[in-house]
Amino acid sequence: ASVWQNLAWLHFEVRNYALSAGFFQQRLQFPFVKPEHELNLLWAYARALFYNQEFQSAETTAEKAVQLAGKIPTMQTLAFQEKLAFYSAQAGHHEKAACLYADILTKQGIPADNQAKAKLAYAYSLIKLNQKDQAREQLQALLNLCDSLPDQAVSDTRLLAFKPQRLKLIAFGLLSKISDDAEQRISFRQQR
Questions:
Q1: Among candidate residues 132, 62, 123, 129, the one with its CA nearest the CA of residue 95
Q2: CB 89 within 8 A of CB 118
């Protein structure tokens, strides 16, 4: 089991995601000492599948991980649910993603930057479901939220910089895309 896991991590680190996913899959055939160990492996496997553009398999694996996380009393599941919603959207399951994002956005304790990203992803799923009014509401709420968010630089705890201005640009672009009014479309494009 250790050999499969070590090979999986090695190939993940060198970005050979197809081999990594195969080794993670082999490792999952063996029992785990703790459910937390299985959960960590499932998430790594889901990431490898996602990076290998196997979106539906990544979604299925992430769903298993969310279910397992829910069975561990000390485990916070919100981050897992967010990733499942993202993988669902990438797999083209926008109805499922929209439901997950709607649920996530009702939870307390979501950092504002993650809330902003979830609103954008939720709005995108709503657009794909042709629910333009709800998408418009989420995008407007996102724009209001972004006005109060500071930029966050890369740090020891943040792998990617967070720039609310980027989310605003995307939101204005989506608003212009779904607007039925030509003047409004022009206004959104100019604000972008």
A1: 129
A2: no
